[in-house]
Here is the input.
Amino acid sequence: MGKVIACYKWVPDEADIKINSDHTIDLSKAKWKISDYDKNAIEAAVQAAQVLEGKAVSLTFGGANAKSSLKDALSRGPDEACWINSDLASEADGFVTATVLAAAVRKMEDVSLVICAEGASDTYARQITPRLGAELDWPVITSVSNISINGNTIRAERQLDDCIQTVEAELPAVISVLPEVNDAPLPSLKAVIAASKKPVTELGDKDLGITDLTSKTRVQSQKAYVMIRKNIIFTEGDALDQVKELVGNLKKEGIL
Here is the structure.
């Protein structure tokens, strides 16, 4: 019986992001949400905890605004939540984030598995899982599309560019899951109400001994990219010929 940790990130809703005329990004009116990819990680943790007959714990690292995420995370099935309340999160890179999360995991007892998404929906840097595994000195499995647990062994299918790779590791371990790993359900009204009664642990910098951490990288600026369309119009031949020509061009572009 061990704990399964689901790491998640509180991010701006991309639907509310505004792009200014100079391509700078305006987040001033954006609502915040749990990263969409992290919802699959939370569901995977809930399912794994059931197999291990343990507890699922949601874990997030964020400032004061991340407190709003706790109820949503708990409504998705975890038994309890842990919130690392730190101003470090506002400018944290992969090094700081993984170091802080590892410190929190070490503080918990009897952790069997840590599950992250392959990347967060705001940056998709894909650094946290390997860094976290290195910090904890645990086996790491990334790009996971299917998992099964038998005793103390986790078996995972990794979805790579040209094949499906199956690997096994002994627990405890750290894995990152792809959205294909499950269908993360919307919380029911009953689950939302029950979430308010579940335990939450709040940790600060001093609790984890992370007061002197400094990011290795810093964001200098952010600009939106501009998509330049080719505006190719297929007019020759009948509808079938036009569709074939479209498919042929999409294959050349590597889209299909």
Observations:
- The first strand starts at residue 3 and ends at 8.
- The CA atoms of residues 104 and 207 lie 9 Å apart.
- The chain has a mean pLDDT of 93.
- Residues 36-52 form the longest helix (17 residues).
